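Lab notebook page, bench 4
Experiment: in silico fold of construct C2
Operator: M.H.
Input chain length: 253 residues
Purpose: comparison with the prior construct
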Amino acid sequence: MTRHLLLISTLGLAVGCGGAAVGPEPKDKEKGPTVDTTNACALGTTDNQTVCYPAGPYGYDVGSVVKDFNVLGHRDINFDAGDVRKNPIATIYAHDYFQDKSIKALVVSIAAGWCGPCKLEQDEVIRLYSNYQKAGAGVRFLEAVIQNPDSSPATMDYVDSSWVTNDDAGWYTADGTSIPGNFVNFDIGIDPDNKGLANYYSILSIPAQIVITTTEVKINNKTYPPMSIVWKNNGVNTPGVKSRVDSILKAAK
């Protein structure tokens, strides 16, 4: 198959973290993309723009189609894996990835400023994204931050000034080391009101990963419709993310 897949992973505290954030809904919206009707989809509207996205019913379990969620943030527009802050802040929608035929996979990481395991895995996530970019695999990552270090709703000011670079955020690896000057090179945004992605994970058991395919694929004799959840996991598991992305990329060929 030739269409693409979307992978969503949520990064956060490994055990026992509570206090879901509640914040203002993002106000700045960008215009929706040009409608793509070459793939089976339902035509709807988002912010008064006509979009193409699979029809519901939508759900949160494996096999369910996910809704057209959105976050506010920066996109790696040129697929160059550079510092993502050079790109303007805009609303990022699930349908952006569904409609872009150049994209084969997306890893969405949801983190929090107080989250140790998020920092533990960040260098590995950046490295994984960079490897996919170098290989020209068409894989995209999206990280959504839900809370600032004080558990208040996440803000782009915090993300840009204190989370995007290792020097500011203080990421570390399992052996206590990290890559000086490393920076987030994939799409990043905020979900401060937990409105877009909250139902896909529990704040008490994050990090969690959710793998979604944007095209119909068959894996281990099971068929998954476009934009449906293929795999869910709680806990830091970058190797597991890579394994599921690779299996869907293979099935989508």
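Observations: Residues 1-39 have pLDDT under 50 and may be disordered. Residues 24 and 91 are 14 Å apart (CA to CA).
Next step: discuss at group meeting.
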